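Attaching the record inline, Q. Sequence:
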Amino acid sequence: MRWKVYEMRCITTLAKLRGSVVHDILGGSLRGVRHGVDVDLQTAKDSVTEILRTKYQESYMRIWDSFEKRQGRKPSEICNLHEHYYNFTDVADRTRDARNVAWTCLESAIGSDIWDSIVNSDPKKWMEIDEDDFPNFDLGGIKVYANIDFAHQCDKPTIIDWKTGPKYPSDRKQLAVYSLYAKARWDWKPTETTLVAAYLYPEYQLDAYVPEAGEVEEAADMIKRSFDEMLALEPAFGNADIENYPMTQDKRSCEWCRFRGICGYETGDETP
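Structure, as predicted:
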């Protein structure tokens, strides 16, 4: 069972994979600009196609499930698509759709005014381009991870977050957390930092604002509350109490849960 849980923990979805690929390519493109390499949209789109094709094949062939095929790589380093794992019938079509969405995201980003202003600015004033593996900061003894897409202080302190999916009410809270990271790392004042959510699909849209003190405090309180809630469920020793983890009554989210294969969802048995 422990291996099965680990196996499922490594599952990703095409939507998450698509977003990860877009972020990696945009980050790599900006690192190239920093070293004097021009950004070519078609090359970026070709990279999306190649990466998705490779990841699709890894997942389809279940390389993660074979020690010989993995060739020394950890299962977590190999693509294991939710759509393959749970036998979706249209994975190839979904992968093509993911590619097309990723292409649109790249077109939106690289063709935008904000991208143009970035690539024509002074790279010495760029602060962050996904260079840290596990960027984090301390919040009252809590280690908080915050993977910022891009930040600069060309005019005024600015954090930019590329969004490859729909707009959510929680997006501003996420950006407020990023402002706390910037305060810890670069001593930027959150209430003097411009936060930008750049939505790339289905159409380009910017949400740029400077947070008020109350928004920043609310983000910090949210982190602390979440941490306290997790600690309350974490046993000091031994196994966790299953009674503290009741199955959701809203089954709409179950289809995309990585762990649905061990909770009874597949058979209709709601008893864990």
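The domain at 123-232 is CATH 3.40.1350 (Trna Endonuclease; Chain: A, domain 1). The two ends are 13 Å apart (CA to CA).

More tomorrow.
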